[in-house]
Design goal:
The protein is mainly α and about 475 residues long. It has a single domain (about 15-215, about 225-465), classed as Growth Hormone, Chain: A (Up-down Bundle). The protein is about 75% helix and about 0% strand. The relative contact order is 0.16. Pfam families: MFS_1 (PF07690). Keywords: Cell membrane, Membrane, Transmembrane, Transmembrane helix.
């Protein structure tokens, strides 16, 4: 793919970025609704932890099957995105996602768990196409060395969606559309998911009418497994598997974890606000990452911009969640630690990734072996250090792939299968004698691998770590 601006020319990609960012927000919002649905569906259908994690298995399993189908077509027929274009690919993904939302209506009407899983599978297929097209598209809207910064910015708005979903989405399903007695019923999901479908279709209309730049390669397109000749891609595939697996596993169990008497003994109605802090932390970290990883800004200005951004975004989160300042103020400590980690990382994507992974390993161990507020704060702090992981693993994985960018992207999206597998494994561990609290050993192994991947890339991909910014983005 030709992602380098023409010599002597600096293209303005502001409008395309804003349009795609809106899309990132919506799919973040809808994805996070899974974390809200899990404990309620578990109660409604009297499920075990393992059975309730089938929600994530079907949703993220669709990523694997959809990406596998894409990769198979790419292998035998050539890359589909090179043929139909990014814009058409994005539109197809939105329409399929909206179809998945509509399928919640019959699932809720008949109150059948299997139908809910089917709707989530279709929704996941739509998001698969969006992941393959939209992430790669953002990485191409400027120079390669600033791709992590751009993708962190769009992912920050994805995290904004995940932040308000527990509050707004939870209110729609479990309060506004709940039964007369205030209890959750399957029917409560019908209207909200129809609303989500309508919004997605409106976004599709907007994207259809916005002129998006196309990227074409001057190289001869070849079939086969060309992307796999790049070692950073092969290692990045497992990195995405571990990251999404770890992030989804932790998010899926937070409400149940905080419900434990030894941790906080909180009811679901309050726990969902703390879940917003977990995802809100990812939003803060991604905004800070977009600034920190932008090589066109001096260190002094970066510090000022990051401080002002952190204060502003924390203020937004605090205005959304139904928590007092005393209840939310602990998060300021994690914001401070995040600042320190960014500056130790010195604006290098791989080095910063390794540092963040190391912090998350320590936080998980703290959550496993402490009780009360220490364990609760540790598990919630993981979100802010998750922040830059997907963006950095993704951009490091596809760095230098050229005409194999979309094929490599499909492999990376295929690895989102981790979000299906790891929560299921943790669910089985939580159901065993090991128990819920110590089941977090599963994501510990995920972050240990990410630590290794970050160290590997910091040593092997020097052109990504230290390349100057030529695009101004």
């Amino acid at each position: 793919m030709n992602n380098t601006p023409e010599t002597g020319t600096r293209k303005n990609y502001t409008i395309p970025l804003i349009t795609i960012t809106l899309l990132f927000f919506m799919w973040g919002f809808i994805t996070c609704m899974n974390d809200i649905l899990i404990p309620y569906l578990k109660q409604l259908f009297q499920l075990t932890f393992f059975e309730s994690m089938l929600v994530q298995f079907c949703f993220f399993g669709a990523y694997f099957l959809g990406s596998l189908a894409y990769f198979t077509v790419s292998y035998y027929k050539g890359d589909p995105i090179n043929k139909v274009g990014y814009k058409n690919g994005i539109l197809a993904g939105i329409i399929l996602s909206a179809t998945g939302c509509v399928l919640f209506y019959p699932a809720a009407t008949f109150s059948v768990y299997g139908l809910f899983l089917g709707a989530l599978f279709v929704l996941g297929l739509g998001f698969t196409i969006l992941q393959i097209t939209a992430n790669a598209y953002v990485s191409l809207l400027g120079s390669e060395d600033s791709a992590s910064s751009r993708l962190n910015m769009t992912q920050a708005f994805n995290a904004f969606g995940t932040t308000i979903a527990p509050v707004l989405g939870g209110h729609l399903i479990f309060e506004f559309f709940a039964g007369a007695d205030g209890k959750f019923t399957a029917e409560a999901t019908r209207i909200p998911y129809l609303i989500f479908a309508a919004i997605l279709l409106l976004v599709a209309v907007l994207i259809y009418n916005v002129k998006l730049p196309s990227f074409e390669t001057g190289e001869v397109e070849s079939k086969g497994l060309g992307a796999l000749k790049f070692p950073q891609l092969k290692l990045g595939v497992l990195g995405i598997f571990c990251y999404v697996g770890g992030e989804v596993a932790v998010g899926s169990f937070i409400i149940s974890f905080l419900h434990l008497d030894s941790i906080a003994g909180l009811p679901e109605s309050i726990s969902k606000n703390y879940l917003s802090l977990y995802w809100g932390g990812a939003m803060i970290g991604r905004f800070l990452g977009a600034i920190s990883l932008n090589h066109s800004i001096g260190q002094g200005k970066k510090a000022i911009y990051m401080l002002l951004t952190a204060i502003a975004v924390f203020g937004v989160i605090f205005s959304i969640v139904d928590l007092t300042f005393d209840q939310a103020s602990f998060f300021l400590v994690f914001i401070g630690l995040n600042f320190v980690a960014f500056f130790i990382g010195k604006s290098a994507p791989a080095r910063t990734l390794a540092i963040f992974a190391c912090v998350n390993v320590l936080l998980l161990l703290s959550a496993m072996f402490n009780t009360g507020e220490m364990a609760m704060y540790s598990i919630l702090g993981i979100g802010i250090f998750n922040s830059i992981m997907f963006s950095n693993i993704y951009t490091l994985g596809i760095a230098g792939l050229g005409k194999y960018t979309s094929q490599g992207s499909s492999l990376l999206v295929m690895a989102i299968l981790g979000g299906a597998v790891m929560p299921l494994i943790q669910g089985a561990v939580a159901d065993s004698s090991i128990g819920l609290q110590h089941s977090f050993i599963v994501p510990v192994f995920c972050y240990l691998y990410i630590l290794y991947f970050g160290i590997y890339c910091s040593r092997k991909l020097k052109f990504v770590e230290h390349a100057p910014n030529v695009s101004g983005h």
